[in-house]
Amino acid sequence: MRFLKKQMREVSFYRTASGHCPIEQFLDSLTARQSTKVTWTLRLIEELEFVPKQYFKKLVGTDDIWEVRVNAGGRHL
């Protein structure tokens, strides 16, 4: 029997009015290892009800903007 994981939240990326998504260019610049770590962290954020603060933090003074924190090989992304 397979258990389906319930998605707790949906990660969405900012897009400009012209449709440009700055995060896509950033993700394309990462090494394979860094990209894997970012993907793992985003999946963690989507699937866990309570995400540790080291990975996910609400930005002060915003309605609903959150910072995703990824540490890959000593480099904060």
Please supply descriptive tags for the structure shown above.
single chain; 77 residues; alpha+beta; two-stranded antiparallel sheet; two-stranded antiparallel ribbon; globular
Shape: globular
What oligomeric assembly is this protein in? single chain
Beta fraction: 5-15%
In sequence order, what are the helices and strands, one letter per element? HHEEEE
**Alpha carbon gap, first and last residue:** 37 Å
Task: Characterize the main sheet.
Answer: 2 strands, antiparallel
Tell me, rounded to a whole number, the average pLDDT: 85
Q: Structural class given helices, strands, pairing?
A: alpha+beta
Strand order of the largest sheet: 1-2
* Number of DSSP strand runs: 4
| Count of alpha/pi helices | 2
Brief overview, please?
Helices cover 30% and strands 13% of the residues.
Describe this structure in words.
This protein has 77 residues and is of the alpha+beta class. It is built from two helices and four strands. The protein has helices at 22-28, 32-47; strands at 56-58, 66-68, 71-72, 75-76. The strands form two sheets. Strands 1-2 form a two-stranded antiparallel sheet. Strand 1 and strand 2 (66-68) form a beta hairpin. The radius of gyration is 14 Å and the shape is globular.
